[in-house]
């Protein structure tokens, strides 16, 4: 039989909203969101037949963004797809789980360090008229500092994936993150948007 499907494919990049082309948005939606949906639909008949498991790789970035809104967008969308699918699959005995890792950039290499020079060279003339090279460099330095703090213990995420596949009673969501990352998700989920915006704006200003 066919027991489990893990939708793990994903790509990441850095850049403020206007810095990225429409082609980039389409590529990210195609890989991070539609790729998982295509794979799920292809195997759904077998998963229903054998009462299997479907596991999706999301991220705590589904709750907030710090310079990679395009990645956050796709992860938030896949979360909603999973929420609908999980409810629909219950009657077939198929369980749907979401893995929500924190910062594991150093483990996965999903996001290489960003180059301010490359970002600047790819900006449109309209964006260059709004931003300065110094601003782009500051944002790049900030994002690279986040990447450098990423955990190297990727086995923690793999363990969650295995539990989602093999546990008699898997969780709907597995948040595999540091305490401060979980706290940030907690603030985002429970506090008014204005509070979260203030927290993130303060972080960006530093």
TrEMBL record:
Keywords: Membrane, Transmembrane, Transmembrane helix. The chain crosses the membrane at residues 54-71, 183-204. The keyword Membrane applies. Gene3D superfamilies: NAD(P)-binding Rossmann-like Domain. SUPFAM superfamilies: NAD(P)-binding Rossmann-fold domains. Belongs to the short-chain dehydrogenases/reductases (SDR) family. This is BDH protein. It comes from Baryphthengus martii.
């Amino acid at each position: 039989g066919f027991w489990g499907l893990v939708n793990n494919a994903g790509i990441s990049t850095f850049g403020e909203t206007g810095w990225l082309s429409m082609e980039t948005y389409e590529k990210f939606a195609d890989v991070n969101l539609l790729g998982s949906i295509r794979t799920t639909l292809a195997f759904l008949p077998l998963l229903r037949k054998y009462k299997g498991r479907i596991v999706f790789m999301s991220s705590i970035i589904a709750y907030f963004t710090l310079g990679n809104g395009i990645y956050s967008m796709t992860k938030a969308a896949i979360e909603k797809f999973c929420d609908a699918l999980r409810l629909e699959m219950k009657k077939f005995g198929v369980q749907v789980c979401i893995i929500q890792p924190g910062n594991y950039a150093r483990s996965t290499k999903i996001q290489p360090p960003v180059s301010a020079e490359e970002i600047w060279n790819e900006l449109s003339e309209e964006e260059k008229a709004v931003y300065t090279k110094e601003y782009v460099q500051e944002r790049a330095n900030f994002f690279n500092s986040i990447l450098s703090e990423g955990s190297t213990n990727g086995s923690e995420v793999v363990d969650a994936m295995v539990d989602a596949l093999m546990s008699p009673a898997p969780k709907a969501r597995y948040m595999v993150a540091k305490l401060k990352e979980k706290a940030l998700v907690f603030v985002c989920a429970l506090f008014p948007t204005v509070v979260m915006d203030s927290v993130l704006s303060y972080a960006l200003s530093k």
